[in-house]
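Hi R.,

Here's the chain you asked about this morning:
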Amino acid sequence: MSKVESLGIKGLESVHYYVHDLARSRRFYTGVMDFAEVGGSSAELSKAGREKSVAFKAGQCVVVCIAPEGEGGRAWRYLQKHPDGIGTLNFAVEDVERTFALLERRGGTPIDEVTTVEGDGGRIRFFSIATPFGDTTFRFLQRDGFEALYPGFEPAASVPPVSNRHGFRGFDHATSNFQTMSPAILWLEHVMGFERYWEIEFHTTDVTPDRSHGSGLRSIVMWDPVSGMKFANNEPWRPFFKQSQINIFNEQHRGDGVQHLAIGTADIIGCVRGLRAAGLQFMPTPGTYYDALPQRIREMGLERIDEDLAVLRELEILVDGDKGAYLLQIFLKEAAGLYNDPSAGPFFYEIIQRKGDQGFGAGNFRALFESIERQQAGAAR
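And the predicted structure, written out as tokens:
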């Protein structure tokens, strides 16, 4: 099959994160994650959209938190159906008219026509499409000298440097969960023009002696070879479909959607130390994971890694790799757990440092699940 013509995506520019409590989001991004508050919606834009937006930036990561102001706006409609969650992914493109034409030709579903706004040093052109990612839409933007984040946005009175103390660089990938992911995979391939990059399926029942319980998934990563943007897509895997962590996300989120965003950093050890010092909680990693880590490192084809294994155990950072290259990653606790509030939802962030490996932690998926199973088995004895 011939390659599908590229949409001309340059990268994931920003995300819209619909939230119930904007003040809480501000405390999290500026106080814990050390994002800079760079601006927000003007009074006129807030009134017209019936929602208030505040943008936070660290490196090339831009998160726009949006809370309803009254009924009827996009944030209000989203939060009537879901807890807090990612409602829009915004992609910078080279030629928005060409992107629109390609998507429409391939059966994409535009929500609106291309809108052009002039001013603020140039112009910006954009449109949005519906997706099979639940109620998450995609927006495509072309900037020609337009300096504001979006039309109707006002810069913050004082904007600190956007290179933060945790070393955040940009979004590494987006991961979404589905009850069944084939529609999303076909859409990403035939409408977006993405290609298969990586896949895995497993279930932990094969490490539980009586095969009475377990959790599993099937995951396919799609990518845009031009921009390098990657989408990991997960679905529950039998048996015990309902016990799968993927299915639990869908139940808590009340539908398919973006499970997490991965943020790249140049120094994950310093990053995690700083985040833990700021009081941030991460998903726990059992000690059995680190007991098996020296053997796993040898199986990866690595003679050694740069990091001290005792430090990785202390900070609960995961390691994975293949053919002599590796990556380090850790997952924040989901928002509902961080805030002790179910309305905050099951979305979370991943922090990742790549040291040559461009994969997705296949060994970590498996090793972490197996370690949890072993720990549970030990506790039961």
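The mean pLDDT is 90.

Let me know if you need anything else.
M.
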